[in-house]
Amino acid sequence: MSDEVRRNVERLHEELTEAADAGDEHARQMLTHIGDYLDRDDPGDEEHEALRHRLDEALVRFDTEHPTLSGAIKGVVDSLGAAGI
């Protein structure tokens, strides 16, 4: 995983933690997926694709309610795209 992807995923993890702590169940679920992704030493194409799919769904869900979180999701999606994932 590139440094940019890792930084953006870690930023997203922080934003999701804040939303989950505020009681957002969808953020809590995404937090679990992001944590699993970060725990992998070298995620493969399948893990990248699964993350990207979940992020696309979350982007639609969080866009209105959590604009900062939505921005963090866009950062990860953009960095994954730049890395060819």
Explain what this protein looks like in three dimensions.
The protein has 85 residues and is mainly α. The protein has one domain. It has 4 helices and no strands. It has helices at residues 3-21, 25-39, 45-62, 67-82. Helix 2 packs antiparallel against helix 3 (45-62). The protein is globular.
Overall geometry: globular
Report the C-alpha radius of gyration, rounded.
12 Å
Helix content: over 70%
The count of domains is 1
The run of helices and strands is HHHH
Residues in β-strands, percent: under 5%
The total beta strand count reads 0
Largest sheet, strands/sense/barrel: none
Structural class comes to mainly alpha
Cα-to-Cα separation, first versus last residue: 10 Å
Point out poorly predicted stretches.
none
Tell me, rounded to a whole number, the average pLDDT.
Answer: 86
So how many helices?
4
Layout of secondary structure:
Elements: H1 3-21, H2 25-39, H3 45-62, H4 67-82
Helix pairs in contact: 1-2, 1-4, 2-3, 3-4
In short:
The protein has 85 residues and is mainly α. It has one domain (3-82). The protein has helices at residues 3-21, 25-39, 45-62, 67-82.
Task: Give structural attributes.
85 residues, mainly alpha, 4 helices, 80% helix, globular
